[in-house]
């Protein structure tokens, strides 16, 4: 909200010497955030001039310029300004390329030394064979409008000032505006009325309510017929509770808008259009009540407020055809829609230069209805900005009268006294407030009298009920105040947030981190120590990404996903079922910036819908809904297990002069999973697997017992290409929550043997398709208790090995806890292991 300083001075005691920064400094005290300062970027001398001569001079380039003589001081007086290019006679010679002015017109002249927006300095210079000492300015050049096609002729604004008059003062260009950020719960501050009230609160000075300055006339006769036909409210309350229509005739819509109003509208961020529309916008900014003027000659029959019919359309004021939804609340007549209620009017009833009679609409619309229509049609407007935050239900009649009064005063109109109001304003209900609650919630010892005084300052009516209770009726312009806590917030705000003491609460005795938290941190720290970099990605994915990585097979079945009602982008409508897409996006982004040797990891929750998803209704506030309702709500919450994922590319370590690093591959991804399992003392089984996003021959399935908890390996080349990733990118993802649940509560350290170990190797020839894990399991089982460790150190196929076979060599370490093993005992254990491998897998010792 932009607040012109001259405007707020009308209703407050803001000092004449005060700046926009001073105003914002006061408003910050009551919770309104400062945004920016707006002021025309002009410095003088900029004066009124009268054109004495205008001589057209055609040029060789086909352009015609005007050589002008312009008086810039009162007739009969001499110039008091000095400087290069300033003519002492007070008549300046100026070359001008515009043609929309004549001899005798009063114009705005920027004299040498003036500076225009963008740092454009005016100086005397020779051009087209003349010394041009100044410029006759357009509104575009002055920075007060967009029209740069012609000169600003002051008579078009209804002005006839004397030459030499300060044009900046005449056009109120010394004024400036303070811009504040208005939070959604304080829509009343989207007006001069609201901002002035807040300034009065901040400074403790008197405030004049502009709404109270309007004398609403009793209807002299029934106005235009209005019918409220929203018989079945969609969102619980009627779409329109009050509609006021007032008739003004004999309007001259071609009358120029006064310069003071034009200046304020521009500073407030609105473009002047014509006197009728400008008055309508001015009243909206002043009171916070949007309104609309219809050309009465274009209306056909009564005005009806209703929901849209199927397949109904409307061309709005932005000249776009809108396909209306049956939930849209419309303003219509017998010929069809004439506006989307609270959002934007239609072109059919738009005010034009020929308009002589208008019907002024001022209504109170349901915030939810307006907000839905605005979002549905992607049609933000100044009106919807206010309606969706809630407006004062008692303002429509006041705003309509204010518009009518200004149309009479500025556009020559006649207030016929014909007015219609249908509906009744829905006034706020009383709230019971415990007088001790503000002190309990804020820690400040507010007295009972102080509480009552602060509530009355915001416009609330306070009735004392007993010794401890207050019955508080919020003001009509504060629809956000519905509960006692909101009243407490207002008390704290007006008394000053700086009065609330800053005291750290004493932490209750606790046991520190839970076991699950400690284990999760242990895994994260271990990966970081191993050279991985942790990333944090958004949990919003496309359906395709969730499907690709969220299931192993390529079946057509659809995965259940949590869909967002209001996604941050249309391409990310679901919550993630897997961590990998976000991690790969981080990898891709880093690679695109030249970082190719990467090892990234992320831990985070995924969202897996259950059979019941969501709940039919949300219980109200203020009371405990009951165990059954809580259980039903919990049953509709998706499972949210923690997942761990890694993504690897490039080399480890990075290539250096004279030394080439090792290329990271699928084995590193598998090792990351093993590392996490080892830290949690969980036995993770790694077997050959298949996954639609992974390379067919380089995929490991990660299991806990018979349950699959994840996959690791190299991404499929098609996925690598589609996602623009480095070749041979390897990844791993596993269900970390499943590992945490399987982790033992206590881990007993194994005793260390003081006896030496005996190591023997064995090489076995097996079928080429036999997984190493299956053969290792057979050797481990066959060797018995004496086998302390077994490790695969070589796989060979080629010369000396028949086709379809491979040789796998294992190092086996044997140890006994009570004696030194003999070579014979170790060999016997190895032979038993080989025998079982032969029986189970047909292994032949090489």
Task: Describe the protein's architecture and organization.
With 846 residues, this protein is α+β, with helices and mostly antiparallel strands. The chain folds into six domains: 2-39 and 176-213, Phenylalanyl-tRNA Synthetase, Chain B, domain 1, CATH 3.30.56; 46-170, Beta Barrel (OB fold (Dihydrolipoamide Acetyltransferase, E2P)), CATH 2.40.50.140; 221-423, Phenylalanyl-trna Synthetase, Chain B, domain 3 (Phenylalanyl-tRNA Synthetase, Chain B, domain 3, 3-Layer(bba) Sandwich); 432-499, Phenylalanyl-tRNA Synthetase, Chain B, domain 1, CATH 3.30.56; 515-606 and 641-742, BirA Bifunctional Protein, domain 2 (2-Layer Sandwich); 758-845, Alpha-Beta Plaits. It is 26% helix and 26% strand. The protein contains 22 helices and 42 strands. A seven-stranded mixed sheet has the order 28-31-32-38-37-36-35, sandwiched between helices. The chain has a five-stranded antiparallel sheet with strand order 5-4-3-6-11, with no helix packed on it. Strand 36 and strand 37 (707-715) form a beta hairpin. The termini are far apart.
